[in-house]
Amino acid sequence: MTSIINENYAIHFGDECYRALNEFIAVKKPSTVFVLVDENTMEHCYAPFAAKLETVAPIEVIEIDAGEEFKNIDTCSGVWNALIELNCDRNSLFISLGGGVVTDLGGFVAATIKRGIDFIHVPTSLLAMVDASIGGKNGVDLGPLKNQVGVIQPPVMTLVDPKFLSTLPEQQLRNGSIEMFKHGLIADRAYWENMLELDFDFSSDTFESLIYQSIIIKNDVVLSDPFEKDARKSLNYGHTVGHAIESYCMSNPKQQEELLHGEAVAAGIIIESYLSQLNTGLSKKDLKQIEEFYEALELGLKFSASDVEQIIGFMAHDKKNVNGEVRFVLLNAIGSYQTDCVVDVQEIRNGFKLYLS
């Protein structure tokens, strides 16, 4: 897979990751290399990564707790303080080795400590490879509200080594694949259909190629609109509802235990596809295909009428909102979208009724 070289950052794949990383380190000569991990990536990923890291600089590992509930300012404070205690300076290098929580939080910490130091993302989950580590969005949650505090600052490079996927259970692979399906829905019908043909067979010879194509789709969208003024909003398809579901579950942890990001977004995709049929012309045939994709996930999330009202309430905090109006990305067809769509709240309720049926 050919490296993707942009003006301000690069994305490397496979063995090329380590050649590019070590070449960068040789030129930069960092004072210290900091590696952020959680307990999972410390156990499964750090040793093989460190074995390929070539540097004479001291290496300091900072470990955080795993899980979305720790993606917050308190965790950032702990990492910032650790960096200061370990003599971080402007010539330090910060490497985030982990899934979406580690890369989101790590990028935010690195972009703000000492007013910004160089950082590199090494995503180890499928979700982080195709979504969280691409595009420069870094940040944390504020209580149950998703991604409310952060910055847009790309890493100097992202290193995508599919070998790390062998450490993941199938549920985590499905979780990440939902963002890949989303990329097809907003940008490329042929890619969407290729994902359907994959049929969640993550051992398929075509799987790595689909990861690569998914990264290209996201990278192209980001390059066209780095600061999310227009086209980049399309990457939030399924997320207006999905993030609200996540926020609701974070504030009611016994309601939907261990809900994964992709699972919430998949529910959001179903509901926002229904809204697309009502408002932007998505055909019944396309909606049916999307429904069949969701049914194959066998997630079975359940919400009462009271739950739905609380979820709708969380949508008021969505970052795309303007003047208090909830703005959706909706599909005209698979592969084509509209941004800044305002939807009647009763249609949202009806979308949940369809989903729950």
From TrEMBL:
GO cellular component, one term: cytoplasm
UniProt-listed Enzyme Commission number(s): 4.2.3.4
Cofactor: Zn(2+); NAD(+); Co(2+)
Residues covered by the 3-dehydroquinate synthase C-terminal domain: 176-321
GO biological process: aromatic amino acid family biosynthetic process; chorismate biosynthetic process
Domain 3-dehydroquinate synthase N-terminal: 62-174
Domain of life per record: Bacteria
NCBIfam families: aroB
Reported function: Catalyzes the conversion of 3-deoxy-D-arabino-heptulosonate 7-phosphate (DAHP) to dehydroquinate (DHQ).
Name the UniProt record assigns to this protein: 3-dehydroquinate synthase
Organism: Nonlabens marinus S1-08
